[in-house]
Amino acid sequence: MSAPKQYDFVIVGSGIGGLSSAVMLAKNGYSVLVLEKNHQIGGALQVFSRDKCIFDTGVHYIGGLDEGENLYRMFKYLGIYDGLNLQSLDRDCFDLIRLPNGKSYPHAQGYAAFSANLIQCFPEEKKAIDAFCVKVREMCDFFPLYNLEMGDEQTYYNNPEILMLGAWDYVCSITENEDLRNVLLGSGPLYAGDQKSTPFYVVALIMNSYIKGSYRLVDGGSQIAKLLVKELRKHGGEILKRKEVVSANFNEQKEITSVNCSDGTSYAASKFISNMHPTPTINIFGKQNFRPAYRDRIAKLENTVSSFMIYFSLKENSFPYFNYNIYDHYSMDCWNSVKYDVNEWPHTLYLCTPASSKSMEYAESLCVMCYMSYEEVKEWENTFNTVLNPSKRDEAYQKFKAEKEQKIVERMELRFPGFSEKIMNVYSSTPLTYKDYIGTPEGSLYGIMKDYKNPIATTINTKTRISNLYLTGQNIIFHGILGATIGAFVTCFNFIDPEETIKKIKEYEK
Ligand SMILES: Cc1cc2nc3c(=O)[nH]c(=O)nc-3n(C[C@H](O)[C@H](O)[C@H](O)COP(=O)(O)OP(=O)(O)OC[C@H]3O[C@@H](n4cnc5c(N)ncnc54)[C@H](O)[C@@H]3O)c2cc1C
């Protein structure tokens, strides 16, 4: 019998971070195998289909994709940009922020339009709006890789105090206008904005990317994962689905030699990269192999809130497609809605009509995302239900979901009178869905919550105590498709020449 194949790298998880790392390493001559536990690749890029509509479970729009911008160039380098089917969101309004007073305010693409539109709505607040835009750009300058630079003195690691600016505090310091505060930070669900913890840098990195090119993925975000896999295979890499990594084997030097999957198979490599959240990573690779202080730190970190998603398939030509997102706030305390009052739920709704190649005039479907705490579904936490391991949850859970769906339909009726008549079918998911499919603790939306009061504790290094185990994904720099892609570059810079790579990425101007 021939010896099992020895790879240079085994990557656990096929989220955007795992797949981008895999492509980068394969492109640079390494042999790579990706192991994914699910039936479908992509992690938060997974989609599902009902009533001939494709629904995104995670990603709804992506920033930094205008020609020459950061994600545009990174996707070009990874070889996937040209294959993407993108729909640019409206330039003069990619996000519409609706406040409880019924007024709506646009976030436009391009800084000139972004500030001009807001100044039109708040003429007396020009100074604050200008200051906000300047601060966002200033903050981004401290993140070299975000700007495709190697970094000099002006970096966040040389100036860690910049990570200690709280977003809510900063916005309160530039304006006393409550409406403007809520409008500037109105897309908070994109990063689970929280008054008491969210650093300004998270807001800046994310908002800047959307101001510089906001796009929907036509017919779903899974195209990113599929294109990355195609590129991986082109460079000789491999991927196996339905491979849940459950444990690892070590040699006498305490290096990992191979990982074991739940089906009894094992895969050997010289180095391993985990695309999982650090908590399951520690559990799978053995608690005893990590320093107690590290384990404790990770265990104490708070994760971002989870969500309830509702997916409506709509009757044909009944509801217009809108080429922007709506953040619909029912409470002026928009950055306190992460810790909501269950009786008042939902405080904030994120709404979008996914882009479909079939029609851009009418929406085929509509998705709504609302924060949901794990506590609400805790009584069912010992159940598990995925396509691979189906198991229907009890009547009480179905009732719980139906009641939540009804609350959202009522909100939709308020905003779009007659909406109920346009619904064909309703589907929904809870924090348990994210926990089961992606493996993030408590179904957290964006992984570890960044905290401006303790930025170092929420910073995750790509290297671990186990000398040949590395981490990648949304917890490294920041979450989102852009954040996890940058995280993949940071991970791979342990193995490929950063300067040479950045030089190549920068060549993709067009
Ligand atoms: C509801 C929602 C909406 C979002 N909206 C947006 C948006 O509009 N725009 C945006 O840019 N970002 C958005 N995000 C954030 C973005 O999707 C994530 O930050 C990003 O996709 C995370 O990528 P990742 O590389 O960390 O891996 P993940 O997507 O977390 O994937 C991890 C992978 O590891 C696999 N895995 C876990 N355990 C094992 C195991 N034991 N063995 C094998 N495989 C395993 C999982 O199955 C999964 O495939 C959203 C996220 C959510 C949840």
Characterize the structure shown.
With 510 residues, the protein is of the alpha/beta class. It has 3 domains: 6-86 and 218-301 and 454-506, FAD/NAD(P)-binding domain (3-Layer(bba) Sandwich), CATH 3.50.50.60; 90-212, no CATH class; 305-445, no CATH class. Helices cover 30% and strands 18% of the residues. The protein contains 14 helices and 18 strands. The chain has helices at 16-27, 70-77, 111-121, 126-140, 167-174, 178-184, 200-211, 222-234, 278-285, 292-300, 395-415, 431-438, 480-492, 498-506; strands at 6-12, 32-35, 47-50, 53-56, 86-88, 95-98, 104-107, 215-217, 238-240, 245-250, 256-261, 266-274, 306-314, 325-329, 348-352, 365-372, 423-429, 469-471. The strands form 4 sheets. Strands 1, 2, 9, 10, 11, 12 and 18 form a 7-stranded mixed beta sheet that branches. The mean pLDDT is 96. The structure holds flavin-adenine dinucleotide. Flavin-adenine dinucleotide (FAD) binds next to helix 1, helix 9, helix 12 and helix 13.
Number of domains: 3
Distance between the termini: 50 Å
Mean pLDDT: 96
**CATH structural class of the largest domain:** Alpha Beta
Total strand segments:
18
Main sheet, how many strands, which sense, barrel?
A: 7 strands, mixed
CATH topology group of the largest domain:
FAD/NAD(P)-binding domain
Segments where pLDDT lies below 50 for 5+ residues?
A: none
Bound molecules: flavin-adenine dinucleotide
Rg on CA atoms, Å = 22 Å
- Give the % helix: 25-40%
